[in-house]
């Protein structure tokens, strides 16, 4: 993958071609689209926001042209999805990370935007639950065999149960994919221009007790009231602490000289049981925000630019 990053950074034309190419591939295999986002972020981290916007604008045009050639009259939604929902947030967050050199600030900003999107969705769509049920049926109903009325009713019931939480779930998934693209881009940047810097930077991720308290309060409100909106916002913050939990596991493995197979086992479990591992690692991240486990175990942690200043 480092070869791909090196290729893309040779010239703007190569960067545009790589972003558009992986963007098109991502329409057929969605996880591949993260690579195109990572390339946009890499351009932004290395060359600045203006260059990243130029690359994503041209790549969006190429993507639209390719789709129009394959199916005339249909490029609009795909270009909007790629350029606005996928590439633009990555470019903006890459610029923020480039200026602040702080994952804490960058992730908080990403969560703030995701949360604002959920609130805007609820404000603009009076009956959001009915909207998600209709959208889900339009998308998934064709997969149900014709004549299977019971299956369609079961699908509609499942969507009705999930509908109150879908806006937050989708916002959290988008935030996670954008952050993953940022992490890949930061790794590439370090590999090409500052070897070894990414590992120390990621292992130092610490969001702090303030965000942790907000997540706990939202979760408590969501469970006790109950409030689907509070649960949606709690899930978005949960994504951040899921990442902090992963960073802590890397820090412990590195700091204690443990075998890398501990990390391999963690990622295998994530692949096999992601919901359970998400809850476990997010909970560990919330605890670490208060307990600072690295410090208690004598593992050095480089200060993040967004950390509070040390006490005198």
From TrEMBL:
Transmembrane helix found in the keyword field: yes
Protein species of origin: Thioalkalivibrio halophilus
Descriptive protein name: DUF2232 domain-containing protein
Alphabetical UniProt keywords: Membrane, Transmembrane, Transmembrane helix
The keyword Kinase belongs to this UniProt entry's keyword annotation: no
Transmembrane regions listed in the UniProt entry: 20-45, 52-71, 77-97, 109-125, 162-184, 204-221, 233-252, 264-291
């Amino acid at each position: 993958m480092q070869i791909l990053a090196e290729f893309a950074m040779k010239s703007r034309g190569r960067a545009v071609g790589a972003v558009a190419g992986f963007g098109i591939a991502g329409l057929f295999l969605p996880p591949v689209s993260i690579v195109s986002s990572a390339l946009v972020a890499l351009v932004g981290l290395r060359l600045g926001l203006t260059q990243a916007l130029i690359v994503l604008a041209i790549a969006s045009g190429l993507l639209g042209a390719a789709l129009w050639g394959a199916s005339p009259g249909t490029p609009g939604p795909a270009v909007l999805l790629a350029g606005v929902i996928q590439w633009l947030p990555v470019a903006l967050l890459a610029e923020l990370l480039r200026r602040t050199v702080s994952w804490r600030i960058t992730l908080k900003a990403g969560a703030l935007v995701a949360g604002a999107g959920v609130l805007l969705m609820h404000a603009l769509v009076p009956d959001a639950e009915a909207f998600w049920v209709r959208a889900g049926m339009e998308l998934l109903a064709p997969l149900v065999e014709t004549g299977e009325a019971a299956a369609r009713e079961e699908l509609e019931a499942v969507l009705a149960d999930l509908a109150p939480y879908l806006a937050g779930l989708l916002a959290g998934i988008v935030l996670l994919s954008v952050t993953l693209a940022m992490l890949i881009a930061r790794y590439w940047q370090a590999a090409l221009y500052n070897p070894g810097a990414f590992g120390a930077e990621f292992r130092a991720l610490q969001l702090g007790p303030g965000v942790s308290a907000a997540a706990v309060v939202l979760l408590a409100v969501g469970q006790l009231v109950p409030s689907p909106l509070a649960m949606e916002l709690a899930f978005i913050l949960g994504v951040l602490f899921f990442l902090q939990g992963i960073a802590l596991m890397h820090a412990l493995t590195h700091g204690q000289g443990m075998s890398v197979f501990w990390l391999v086992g963690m990622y295998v479990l994530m692949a096999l049981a992601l919901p359970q591992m998400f809850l476990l690692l997010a909970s560990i991240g919330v605890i670490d925000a208060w307990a600072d486990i690295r410090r208690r175990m004598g593992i050095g942690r480089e200060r993040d630019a967004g950390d509070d200043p040390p006490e005198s």
